[in-house]
Amino acid sequence: MTTADRRPGPRGYYTLLKAVVYRDLLIWVRYPVDAVTGVVMGLFFFGVMFYGGTLVAGQTLTDSLEGLIVGYFLWTLSLGAYSGITNDVRSEASWGTLERHFTTPFGFGPVVLAKGLAILLRTFATSAVILAAMLLLSDVTLQLPLVTVVTVATLAIASAFGLGLAMGGLGVLYKRIGNLVNLVQFSFVGLISAPAFDLGWARLLPLAQGSAMLQRAMRDGVRLWEFDPAALAVLIGTAVGYVAAGYLAFGLATRRARRLGVLGDY
Which of 66, 109, 226, 254 is the most interior residue, by most CB within 10 Å? Predict the structure, then answer.
């Protein structure tokens, strides 16, 4: 039997996806304190910005509150996608289970993509709760065309997922990279704010194009088919490009870790 004959069919990949999503959601539900704390912390930081900014800036903050909420919503999504895959890979390396993914009939690629989808679903669930709470807290009304918001937000945070893959690979190889992970994480604030500076080249940065389009969708009610095709092309291109680059970086890092014999060490 050849290697091609041993490859699972579409039903096998569906079973893999279902198992990975179920496992991720099960772990999330079985640690409710950690799950609830994440939502509470997200709301706490928004409350600090909202009430603190109202006291300091007053009407200036009120005039830009819609943009702040949309930007914060995207930040929680990107943070979940980025730290979710990074922490997952680093945790599995520390548990000694990461190398098992390389020996499955599926190969590591489909496994990590299934993990990414599971993390994406969990991140959207928690960020949706935070968004609803922010709207109630601030008494702001936003446009929420579901198909447009989900599509643009998913493509936007795909670049953050790609960065998370790269950081996960570096974590497998170099083990302790917490400061670097946090540095990239803090840069998301600037990347989401990049469209405000109206720099043409900034559209190619992670999150930047998605941030600009999500603002238009949620503040002005622009639908997906109403966007400029060039803007959509940039959004899709950056999403695919950063995921591909992150996966390549992860593959190179884990290949070197296997060559050095440190893939399962921690």
Answer: 254
Look-up of token digits 């704390």: 37
H or E element at residue 2: none
Which H or E run includes 229? helix 229-260
Rounded distance, CA 133 to CA 21, Å? 26
Residue 265: left if φ>0, alpha if ψ -120 to 50, beta else—which one?
beta
- Cα–Cα distances in angstroms (integers) from residue 51 to residues 40, 47, 63, 117, 204, in the given order: 16, 6, 14, 35, 34
Rg of the chain taking only CA atoms, in angstroms: 20
Ordered per-residue pLDDT tens for the chain, 266 residues? 444 445 677 777 888 888 888 888 888 888 888 878 888 888 888 877 766 655 454 444 445 778 888 888 999 999 988 988 888 877 777 776 777 777 777 777 778 888 888 888 888 988 998 898 888 888 888 888 889 999 999 999 999 999 998 988 888 888 778 788 888 888 888 888 877 556 677 888 999 999 999 999 998 889 999 999 999 999 999 999 999 999 999 889 888 887 877 666 55
The residue written with tokens 């060490």 in the block is 265
Separation of alpha carbons 215 and 210, rounded Å: 8
Q: How far is CA 172 from the centre of its chain?
A: 19
Cβ(252)–Cβ(168) below 8 Å: no
Secondary structure element (H or E) that encloses residue 85, with its range = helix 65-95
CA distance 141 to 87: 34
Torsion of the alpha carbons at 148, 150, 154 and 160, rounded to the nearest 10: 110
**Separation CA 67–CA 48 (nearest Å):** 16
